[in-house]
Q: What sequence folds into this?
C-alpha cells in the first residue's frame, strides 16, 4: 500500500484507529474556536490561493522560509510555490482592495500551509494556520487588540495563564541596540536572525557570527535579559492590564522573530513548561503592504499566525480535548421490512427537523439494530409498528428506558 508523504497527515474521525492518529474532530474543534473568537473581535474571514507566484516569497518572507518552499515550474512555465505563510498574500489582497474597506481592516483566515521542513515534534510539511491581521492603525492599541485576540483564542480552548504565556518584544529596541553598538544598519536583519536562534544555537556558533557584525555575545545576552519595556511595550502592557489579561503576557527580548518583514512589536505564544515549540507568532510589519504594491499603497499592519500542530499536541498533553461522539439523536429501528418505506419517511422528516438520524441500510435483526443504537450513544430509538388504526411510532429514551407511543402525525423528538 502506498503510504502518505513524510510530514503530511491523514485526519480520522473519532474514535481514532491508533492513539497517535490525527483527529478530524479535534481539528474541527480548533477551527470552531478560531473562527468564533475572531468573529467576536469583529474580524472578517478571507481566503487566497494555495498556489502563488514564487516571487511573492523570495524577496519578502526572509531566508528561512524561502529555503523551505514547495516550489516548481508549472505547465505554463511559471515559477510557482505552494503558500508557506499567508502574510504576503493578505498584504497583496489588502493593497489591491483597501479603498473598498473602512479602516482599520481586521481580517482572519485558516489556510493550510506548506513548508519543506525537516519533520520533527511540532513541525510538519503542512499545517493549518489561523491568521489574524489588522491594517491601517499604527498605534499600540492595535497591537494590544491583536494580542488579546490571541490570548482569548487560547483561553477559548480551555488553556489558562498556567498553561501558556505571550512573550512580547520589539524589533525597534533591538535595532537601536544594534546601531548603538556600532552595527551596520544594512545588516540588521542578519543580526535579528542570529538573535532569533540564540536559544537553539551553541555559543561557539552564534559568538563568531556576532563578532562578524562587531558585537559580543555577552553584550547581546546583557540586553536580552534587561527586560525593561520600551514606552510602546509599556502601553501595550497597560492596555492588557485594563482588560484583566496581565497574567498572560510578559516582556522577553529573546523574541525577535525570523521573518524579514517585521518592523515593530513582535510576540510569540509558548506553553509555560517550555515543552513545545512556539504555539503562535506575529508582530508588526508596517512596510510590507507598500513593498507588495510597489509603493502604491502604504498601510501599517500587524498580525499573528497560530498553527494547529503544536496546539493539538498541547491540548492533548494538558487534557483539554473534549470527548467527541457522533452526536446521534435517534436510531430508527426497522424490524419489519414492510415498514421500511414509512420508516424512511420518518428518517427524512426527523433529519429535516435538524436531528442526527441513523438507521440500518439493509435488513437486520432487531437486537443488532438496538445494540448499534447503544454503540452510537443515541438519545432515542424510534420504531414504527402497525396498529389496528394505522401505523404508529414507539419512541424510547435510551437513558431512562422511558417509552411513548405516538401517531405518525405527532412524531417529533
Ligand atoms: P511563523 O512563526 O512562521 O509565522 O508561524 C506561525 C506559527 O505557525 C508557528 O508558531 C507554529 O505554530 C506554526 N507553524 C509554522 N511552521 C510550521 C510547521 N512547519 N509545522 C507546524 N506548525 C508550523 C508566520 O507564518 C507569520 N506569517 C505569522 C504572521 C501573520 N505574522 C503576521 N501575520
A:
Amino acid at each position: 500500500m502506498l503510504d502518505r508523504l513524510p510530514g503530511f497527515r491523514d485526519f480520522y474521525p473519532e474514535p481514532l484507529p491508533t492513539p497517535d492518529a490525527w483527529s478530524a474532530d479535534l481539528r474541527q474543534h480548533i477551527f470552531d474556536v478560531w473562527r468564533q473568537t475572531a468573529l467576536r473581535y469583529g474580524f472578517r474571514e478571507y481566503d487566497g490561493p494555495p498556489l502563488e507566484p514564487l516571487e511573492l516569497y523570495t524577496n519578502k518572507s526572509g531566508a528561512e522560509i524561502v529555503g523551505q518552499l514547495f516550489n516548481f515550474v508549472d505547465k505554463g512555465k511559471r515559477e510557482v510555490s505552494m503558500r508557506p505563510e499567508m502574510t504576503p498574500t493578505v498584504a497583496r489582497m489588502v493593497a489591491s482592495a483597501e479603498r473598498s474597506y473602512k479602516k482599520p481592516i481586521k481580517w482572519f483566515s485558516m489556510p493550510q500551509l506548506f513548508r519543506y521542513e525537516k519533520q520533527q515534534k511540532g513541525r510538519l510539511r503542512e499545517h493549518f494556520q489561523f491568521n489574524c491581521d489588522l491594517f491601517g492603525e499604527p498605534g499600540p492599541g492595535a497591537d494590544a487588540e491583536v494580542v488579546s485576540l490571541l490570548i482569548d483564542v487560547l483561553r477559548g480552548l480551555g488553556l489558562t495563564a498556567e498553561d501558556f504565556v505571550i512573550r512580547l518584544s520589539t524589533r525597534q529596541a533591538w535595532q537601536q541596540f544594534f546601531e548603538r553598538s556600532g552595527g551596520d544598519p544594512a545588516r540588521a536583519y542578519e543580526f535579528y536572525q542570529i538573535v532569533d536562534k540564540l536559544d537553539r544555537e551553541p555559543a561557539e556558533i552564534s559568538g563568531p557570527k556576532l563578532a562578524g557584525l562587531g558585537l559580543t555575545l555577552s553584550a547581546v545576552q546583557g540586553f536580552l535579559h534587561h527586560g525593561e519595556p520600551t514606552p510602546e511595550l509599556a502601553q501595550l502592557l497597560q492596555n492588557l492590564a485594563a482588560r484583566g489579561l496581565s497574567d498572560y503576557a510578559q516582556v522577553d527580548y529573546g523574541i525577535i522573530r525570523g521573518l524579514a518583514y517585521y518592523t515593530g512589536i513582535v510576540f510569540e505564544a509558548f506553553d509555560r513548561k517550555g515543552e513545545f515549540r512556539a504555539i503562535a507568532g506575529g508582530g508588526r510589519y508596517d512596510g510590507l503592504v507598500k513593498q507588495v504594491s510597489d509603493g502604491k499603497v502604504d498601510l501599517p499592519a500587524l498580525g499573528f499566525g497560530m498553527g494547529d500542530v503544536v496546539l493539538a499536541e498541547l491540548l492533548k498533553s494538558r487534557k483539554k480535548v473534549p470527548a467527541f461522539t457522533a452526536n446521534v439523536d435517534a436510531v430508527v429501528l426497522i424490524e419489519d421490512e414492510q415498514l421500511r418505506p414509512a420508516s424512511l419517511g420518518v428518517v427524512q422528516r426527523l433529519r429535516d427537523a435538524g436531528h442526527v438520524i441513523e438507521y440500518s441500510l439493509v435488513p437486520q435483526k432487531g437486537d443488532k439494530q438496538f445494540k448499534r443504537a447503544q454503540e452510537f450513544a443515541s438519545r432515542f430509538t424510534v420504531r414504527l409498528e402497525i396498529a389496528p388504526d394505522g401505523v404508529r411510532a414507539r419512541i424510547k429514551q435510551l437513558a431512562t428506558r422511558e417509552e411513548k407511543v405516538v401517531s405518525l402525525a405527532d412524531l417529533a423528538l
Q: What stands out?
A: The domain at 11-48+86-317 is CATH 3.30.930.10 (BirA Bifunctional Protein; domain 2). The two ends are 45 Å apart (CA to CA). The chain has two domains: 11-48+86-317, 330-410.
